[in-house]
Amino acid sequence: MPGHAVEVIHDGESWYASAAGWFRNGLYVAPLSWRDTPPPWQSPDNPVAGLDVDGRLTVFALAPGGTAVDHRWQEAPGGPWTGSWHRFGTAAGAAPRVTGDGSGRLTVTAIGPSGVGTFVRRQAVPSGGWQPWTAFGDRTVAPLVSGSPAL
Q: Can you point out the beta strands (E) in 1-151?
C-alpha cells in the first residue's frame, strides 16, 4: 500500500500496515502476511535481459507461481515492446539467467521445477527463434550465475 508515514501495527493476533495523510483522505489499514523469504518471482534477480546481435532487448522473467518463464522483446532496436508477456516454457523453478555466446546467440538457463535439474534453451540462430528446452544435468547449481555479456 503506498502511503505517507506507513506504520506496522500488531493487535496481539494479527499484523497490519497503516497509511495516513491528507492525500489519502484519512487512515487506511491493510492486513500483513509475513513470509520468511519472498516468492521467487519477486526476486531482485527477476527479470533479466539479453541483447540480441541486431540490437533488440529480450526480457525473461519467472512467471507468477514460479513454474514457468515468460518473455517480451523489442520489435526493433530502441523500438516498442511486444504487447504482452509470452510463455517461454515451463522448465523453471527459479529466476532465469541469460547470456550471450561467441556466435551471437542468447542462451537462457533455469533451475527446474521444485529445484530439480538445470535446463537450457538457446537461440537457433543469432536474433532468431528458439530451440526447445534441454536438460543440462540432474543436479541443481544454486545460484546460477550469468556471464558476460548478460545485462
A: 4-10, 15-21, 26-32, 48-51, 57-62, 69-73, 86-89, 97-100, 106-111, 118-122, 134-137
